[in-house]
Amino acid sequence: MKKRIAVLPGDGIGREVMEGAVRILKAVADCFDHEFEFTEGLIGGAAIDAKGNPLPPETLEICRESDAILLGAVGGPKWSDVPTDIRPEKGLLGLRKEMGLFANLRPVTAYQQLVNASPLKREVIENVDLMIVRELTGGIYFGKSERRGENNDVAVDTLQYDVHEIERIVEKAFQLASVRRKKLTSVDKANVLESSRMWREIVDKVSVNYPDVQVEHMLVDSTAMKLIHQPGDFDVVVTENMFGDILSDEASMIAGSLGMLPSASLRSDSVGLYEPVHGSAPDIAGENKANPLAMILSAAMMLKYSFDLEKESRAVEAAVTEVLNDGYYTSDVGVSGKCIGTKEMIDKVMDKL
Ligand code: ATP
Ligand code: MG
User: Which domains are seen in the chain, by residue range?
Assistant: First the structure.
C-alpha cells in the first residue's frame, strides 16, 4: 500500500525523536511491503527562523496532500520574545484547526517494566489500559473571551458547543470503545453546566447505535479522583476540551514518564496528526537523552488509525515492549536498569522489529 506522510520534526528534541519514528516506519515498509513517501515540512520555531511564520503555507499544503502527519514538538526559550500571534505553539494550534482535527486520543498504558516510575502504587496501576478521547476544536478554549466593565474588571470566557460538534466526538469514542473493552465513560459536569446536560443527552442518543458498549456518565470531579484511585476501571473516556486537557495530564502520571505517551488527533475521515504528548524539552535538546518511544508509539498509532495497518502497528508496539522487558530505559524513566541514549534506544527498537 502506498501512503504519503508529512514529517514535521519541529524544535528541540522533536528532531531527535522524529528520526526514530521515520527509521521505524521505513523498516515497517520494508518488512511488510508497503510504500511510505515522506515529505518534510517546517513548523514552530524552526519555521519562524526560516520563514517568519510558525505555520508557513507550504507546510499546510504538504499536510493537506498527505494521508497522515507526524509531528515532533514545537517551541523553546529561543522564541519566548516573538509576538504572541506568531509564537511556535500557534503553528500547532493553527494546523489542528486548519485540518479540522477534532478528536484527540491519548492512550495510557502501564508498562510492566515501568510501574516503579509512576508515583502511584503498583497494584493500582497494574493492567491499566485506557484511552482518553478529548474534544479538541471547541468548548471554552475557542469560545468568545473578553474583558468588560468600565475598568475592564470583569473577564468572560464562553463554553459553547453545538449538537454536531458533540455528536461527532461521541461517535468517535463509541467506535473506539466498540473495538476495545466495550466500556465508555462520558465525563461532564451536568449538575452545573447546560452544555454538559446537552452532552449527556447526545451520548444517550448515540448509545442506541452501540448496544454492546456499556456507557456510564461521570462528573469530572469524581473522574479526577477515580483516575488515581481505580484507573484500571476505565476503558474509553470521552469528554470536552478543557476537562480532557486536565484529565489527560493527570492520567499521564500512570505511565511514569511523559516520554512514553503517544497521541493522535483525528477527524471523521482517516487523516490524522500523530505526536508525542511531551514538548520540545529544551533542557535536554541535542544531548541524545530524549526518550523516543512516545514518538515511535505515535507512529504506531498512525499505522493503526490512519492506514488501518493493525498488524504492523502491533509489531511496533511489541518491539517497544520487548526493549523495555530487556531492561533498557532512557534517563527520563527513573527506574533502575540499563540507561541508554536516544539513538541507542532507536537502534534497540529497530533490532526487535
Ligand atoms: P510544552 O509547553 O511544549 O508542552 P512543557 O514545558 O510542558 O512543554 P516538555 O518539553 O514536555 O515541557 O518537558 C517537560 C519535562 O519533561 C522536561 O524536563 C523535559 O526534559 C522532560 N521530557 C519531556 N519529554 C521528554 C522525553 N521524550 N524524554 C526525556 N525527557 C522528556
Ligand atoms: Mg506541556
Answer: 1-109+257-353 (3.40.718.10), 119-130+154-255 (3.40.50)
Across 193-300, where does the E strand assignment appear?
214-219, 236-239, 262-266, 272-276
Q: Is 322 annotated as a binding residue?
A: no
Distance 282 CA to ligand 2 centre (A): 12
Ligand at shortest distance from the CA of 341:
1
Q: What's the ipTM?
A: 0.94
Q: Report the separation in Å between the CA atom of 112 and the middle of ligand 2, taken as the mean of its atom positions.
A: 25
User: Hey, whose CA ends up nearest to atom 5 of ligand 1?
Assistant: 279
Distance of CA 49 to the CA centre of its chain: 26
Decide if 45 contacts 94 (C-beta within 8 A). Answer: no
Whether the Cβ atoms of residue 340 and residue 299 lie closer than 8 Å to each other: no
106 in contact with ligand 1, CB cutoff 6 A: no
Q: Are the beta carbons of 199 and 189 closer than 8 angstroms?
A: no
Residue-wise pLDDT tens for the chain (353 aa)?
A: 899 999 999 999 999 999 999 999 999 999 999 999 999 999 999 999 999 999 999 999 999 999 999 999 999 999 999 998 899 999 998 999 999 999 999 999 998 888 888 888 888 998 899 999 999 999 999 999 999 999 999 999 999 999 999 999 999 999 999 999 999 999 999 999 999 999 999 999 999 999 999 999 999 999 999 999 999 999 999 999 999 999 998 998 898 888 999 999 999 999 999 999 999 999 999 999 999 999 999 999 999 999 999 999 999 999 999 999 999 999 888 767 799 999 999 999 999 99
Ligand 1 pocket residue status of 285, Cβ below 6 Å = no
Evaluate whether 5 touches 66 at the Cβ level (below 8 Å). yes
75 lines ligand 1 (CB under 6 A): yes
Coil vs helix vs strand at 73: strand
Q: Which three cell numbers stand for residue 17?
A: 525523536
Active-site positions? 141, 189, 221, 245, 249
CA proximity to 157, closest of 142, 169, 172, 170: 142
Ligand number, closest to the Cα atom of 345:
1
